């Protein structure tokens, strides 16, 4: 049975991500929005990976490999296509590059990873690797010691100054130029999502305290270092900082009864479309009005208009599937 509260949870992340992107490109300086942008940066990618891991268990890992692996690879392929489209449009519209075979090759081989498209590539890689490692991944869920050792290994990796100038390697271990969301350091969130689904982990006082402790380490790191833990490449404390807000988001979503067709649920069911279409709209506006600066109400209105446009498109897609 589909967990619609998880779709609503993803819907909240979609709203936050689009709002953060609109403000990053067009927003006037604002302390409140700067803090929101920081919070969104900490939680969004980690939250999506947790949600993907959670859904992966029910949709794929709870079934046999013959059924699940082709479907996982198909999902990864769709994410990869979304990355290609977003990356290419960024280069053509924002950077005003010429469409050449060389540019196509660089994008198709991920030798170029333009801004605001990199997360789509990481999503594709996580899901694709999950498909290829289906049986070991499923077996790990029955071996707590090995499972949590793998989670710990990913977190420990964030304590070291990893990073690569090679874009393809940067997607694995991190990079500041180009910016990437590396699956080694962020992978624990995908694994934790699988664990929560497989073992029906409850959002109780115990998990709340663990989440608070993880986010507390982010606060301690900030207090000691006098600066926010590194995002590109991600530091362990940056990764852990998402725990408490994500626990709170999911807890809030589970207070309500969600049904198919709800706006938040629709957003969560169509994450790829919302992220891709919102990117293309933002890139188009940026190309036409590069000096545009909006106050907070205008940023909110622009975000709402983009989401309504995406909602309209998802409705068309849904109707075409049922026709």
In short:
The chain is mainly alpha-helical and 323 residues long. The protein is 74% helix and 0% strand. It has one domain (4-313).
Question: Strand tally, please?
Answer: 0
Structural class estimated from helices and strands: mainly alpha
Order of helices and strands: HHHHHHHHHHHHHHH
Biggest sheet details: none
Distance from N terminus to C terminus (CA atoms, Å) equals: 24 Å
Quick one: overall form?
globular
Number of domains: 1
How much beta, percentage-wise? under 5%
Helical proportion, percent range: over 70%
Annotation field: number of helices: 15
Which segments are poorly predicted (pLDDT under 50) over 5 or more consecutive residues?
none
The value of Rg in angstroms is 19 Å
Give an account of the 3D structure.
By secondary structure, the protein is mostly helical. The protein has one domain. Helices cover 74% and strands 0% of the residues. It contains 15 helices and no strands. Helix 1 (4-26) packs across helix 15 (296-322) and helix 3 (65-94) packs parallel to helix 14. It is globular, with a radius of gyration of 19 Å.
Write the layout of secondary structure elements.
Elements: H1 4-26, H2 31-61, H3 65-94, H4 101-108, H5 118-132, H6 134-140, H7 144-157, H8 167-173, H9 183-198, H10 205-225, H11 236-240, H12 243-253, H13 263-269, H14 271-288, H15 296-322
Helix pairs in contact: 1-2, 1-13, 1-14, 1-15, 2-9, 3-5, 3-14, 7-9, 10-12, 14-15
């Amino acid at each position: 049975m589909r967990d619609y509260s998880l779709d609503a949870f993803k819907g909240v992340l979609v709203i936050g991500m689009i709002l953060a992107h609109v403000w990053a490109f067009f927003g006037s300086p604002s302390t409140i929005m700067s803090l929101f942008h920081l919070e969104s940066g900490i939680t969004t990618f980690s939250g999506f990976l947790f949600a993907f891991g959670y859904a992966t268990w029910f949709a794929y890992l709870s079934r046999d490999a013959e059924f699940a692996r082709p479907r996982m690879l198909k999902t990864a392929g769709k994410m990869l296509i979304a990355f290609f489209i977003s990356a290419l449009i960024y280069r053509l519209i924002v950077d005003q590059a010429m469409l050449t075979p060389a540019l196509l090759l660089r994008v198709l081989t991920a030798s170029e990873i333009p801004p605001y498209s990199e997360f789509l590539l990481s999503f594709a890689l996580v899901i694709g690797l999950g498909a290829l490692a289906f049986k070991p991944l499923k077996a790990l869920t029955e071996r707590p010691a090995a499972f949590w050792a793998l989670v710990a290994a990913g977190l420990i990796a964030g304590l070291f100054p990893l990073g690569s100038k090679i874009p393809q390697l940067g997607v694995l271990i991190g990079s500041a130029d180009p910016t990437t969301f590396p699956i080694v350091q962020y992978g624990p969130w995908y694994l934790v999502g699988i664990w929560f689904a497989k073992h029906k982990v409850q959002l109780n006082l115990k998990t709340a305290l663990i989440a608070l402790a993880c986010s507390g380490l982010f606060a301690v790191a900030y207090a000691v270092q006098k600066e926010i833990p590194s995002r590109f490449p991600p530091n362990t404390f940056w990764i852990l900082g998402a725990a408490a807000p994500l626990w709170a988001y999911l807890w809030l979503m589970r207070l309500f009864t969600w049904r198919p067709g709800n706006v938040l649920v629709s957003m969560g069911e169509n994450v790829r479309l919302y992220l891709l279409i919102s990117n293309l709209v933002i890139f188009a506006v940026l190309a036409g009005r590069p000096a545009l600066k909006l106050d907070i109400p205008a940023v909110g209105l622009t975000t709402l208009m983009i989401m309504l446009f995406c909602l309209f498109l998802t409705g068309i897609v849904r109707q075409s599937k049922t026709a």
